[in-house]
Amino acid sequence: xxxxxxxxxxxxxxxxxxxxxxxxxxxxxxxxxxxxxxxxxxxxxxxxxxxxxxxxxxxxxxxxxxxxxxxxxxxxxxxxxxxxxxxxxxxxxxxxxxxxxxxxxxxxxxxxxxxxxxxxxxxxxxxxxxxxxxxxxxxxxxxxxxxxxxxxxxxxxxxxxxxxxxxxxxxxxxxxxxxxxxxxxxxxxxxxxxxxxxxxxxxxxxxxxxxxxxxxxxxxxxxxxxxxxxxxxxxxxxxxxxxxxxxxxxxxxx
Length: 254
Prior knowledge:
Layout lengths: L9 E5 L4 H12 L3 E5 L3 H13 L3 E4 L7 H14 L5 E4 L15 H29 L2 E6 L12 H21 L4 E8 L8 H4 L2 H10 L9 H11 L10 E4 L8
Parallel strand pairs: 1-2, 1-4, 2-3, 4-5, 5-6, 6-7
């Protein structure tokens, strides 16, 4: 038996038109899952769908803004309509509209961070968990960040939201564990994505990060996709309420 196969499983991956979300969608599809690629812009989602199909996988695109509950309800309903019951939910989409100290954080930016990075994950999880419970099988994966376990002078609100995601995963794991539903987080370090461009596009910052990272490099989106496969598959069947840190070793050094 291949414990990493996901044949017949239906997966939703938010924020999957690029970066880490795209890698997760492509990895899940490569292991047999039927994947719904979702982000705000449909053409970008369809590009990923075409790439998955070209590689022999099965996918479809559904555009949705995670900050709008009605759009999340549409995402779930459309997934069921096209593919059937949802087995795997990956909450990857997030926002970080502010870079700087929390003393200068505008209220609307803070609200957006909390809404998109915590509340939306709560909404989406509650839309799929009851049907998973009926089948006594399901997986929820929330993409957090190592910012959740470290203080930051410039990403404070984002870090607060990502720490809350870890607790959300633990709470859901406790509430739904008896129904054979597993809920976990992935906490990437610095990964070369557009979302994190401000942290790696500066040569001085990049050199410092590489010098202080045990593996000597920053991450690539494909460093994360396989972790989602593990958590979604039979291979991760006894793992719940946990956070897998994938940071090249940054958080183990002083």
